[in-house]
Amino acid sequence: MRFPIPDRDPKDTKSFDAVFSAEGTTTILTRSKPRRRTPSPNAGCRPSGGSVRQARPASLGFADVEGYLRVRRVELGWSLRRMLAELQVGSAWLKNQLHRLGIP
Which of 45, 55, 84, 86 has the fewest Cβ atoms nearer than 10 Å? Predict the structure, then answer.
């Protein structure tokens, strides 16, 4: 046996490879096959980003994003970082909303 092709089983250890190398054989490593993903039963049924962004302020007791931003940023003086953590949205989206509403 000159070129063994090892199994990718975790039970095969380095000492196992050492036995082959002591005999003067070269081990050939091949690519493993990529795993096939099984489709999720809810695949394609996730809410869109817009509805999630609108639902988050509603779950916090605000009618819309504008009301949330006016209270948190203008009245309470919250930082962007604090609002990002609470809303769980991207910074670009939040900055765009503040700019659109004219809130500094």
Answer: 45
